Amino acid sequence: MLTAAEAANQLGVKVGTLYAYVSRGWLKSYRRRVGRQALYRRSDIEALRGLVAPERGRRARSVPDASSWVTVAQPKSAAGISLPGVIVTESAISSIIEKHLAYRGYPIEEVVAHASFEETCLLLWKGERPGGSEVADLRAAIAAAKLPAAVSATIAALGDDAPPLLRLSAMMPSLAAFEHRGDPLSRPERARRIIAMLPLPLARKPGASVSAEGGMAERLLKTVAGTSASDWERAAMNQILVACAEHEMNASTFAARVVASTGADLYASVLAALCSLSGPIHGGACDRIERMFADLEAGRKLDDLLDAFTRERRLPPGFGHHIYPDGDPRAVLLRETAAAIERHKGRTLYASALRVEQAVWKRERLRPNLDFYLTVCVRMLGFRRGMPAAIFAVGRCAGWIAHILEQYENNRLIRPRMRYRGVPVRHWETRA
């Protein structure tokens, strides 16, 4: 057994960093029977040292050695069960500790209640709360954004029936090509351009005027939903975007970091995240939730729908989250947002959502996740069908960009390994 000072010395880190490893679940500490001093197993420290040991004179903070990364063949417990939630890297962007989500140390509840989406973007990208002038500049960029003619032509070629996520994805290589023909932007400038352009491929009213003070919330409401963007609508839209902005190492964020680790630019890395989000198990959850509500509106009984999910051995869409078995805190926040929207618009969708939530809890003991009340809020605000997943992408792009920038800071190529399970080695012999 080692003391904290001895263990930190073995790892080449500060004692405070050692305590952070314990809080993240990377390391277990033990207490003496007498006194309160924490001790650490030497074998645990030696195993952890392989992940954080200095390399070429500097600490490899971005990613541990490739052999330790999560792969298709996940490590198993002593009982032979695959272990979920394997740690794959370090990040200072967000944390989920004891089921509590925080952005740069700020609890999600406080950020949703008090921060604008623009403030959240800059907080995630830079690490600290931004000054008023920085926020104003980003809002002004969003309000003034216009698609270059070549990019607009690319989006138009997709047709009016192209899915919203596909339109966002198509914009990224078009923006990259447009920038390639002019002066290259710095990474912060490129980040601002991507965020500012995101609403434009989704726009139903591309010519709607937007004030700089309204920022992203007003832009989405006026040009995409076609509403007046009243104060309460902007407040609700802002809360939705902030709740979606970041969530540690989900599949789309991991995809963005893998591509960024190759040295690819922000456009390519964000495109990778969007492609990952398009999968039915990730961003496609919103589409399934919309179908469920459409079936209910068409007269199908809720019990029949839930029975069908049970027969097909599927969870009801928008319910259950392996990180939050007792309930997703973001869903709780957006349920409150939905209640506020209902007081103004009186939409029946909120009442239907509560009925679904109660029925699923009674049958399955499952709570809703972010996707469920995100879909409810977005549709209640007047956005057309298919838009909840795209609104999620607009919000989450703030976190994707933060992770891409962090990956660039101290990069190592992310190259996982797989465990081979095919036929044994054999030899190619000439046939007679």
- Assess the beta-strand content as a share of residues: under 5%
State the CATH superfamily name of the largest domain: Citrate Synthase, domain 1
Please tell me the total number of domains.
2
Which overall shape is indicated by the principal axes computed on the Cα atoms?
Answer: globular
Helix content: 40-55%
Rg computed from alpha carbons, rounded to a whole number of angstroms: 24 Å
Element-level helix/strand string: EHHEEHEEEEEHHHHHHHHHHHHHHHH
Mean pLDDT: 88
Q: How many strands appear in the DSSP assignment? A: 8
Distance between the termini: 64 Å
State the major sheet.
Answer: 3 strands, antiparallel
CATH class of the largest domain: Mainly Alpha
Report the oligomer. Answer: single chain
Task: Give me the CATH architecture of the largest domain, please.
Answer: Orthogonal Bundle
Number of helical segments? 19
Low-pLDDT residue spans: 52-74
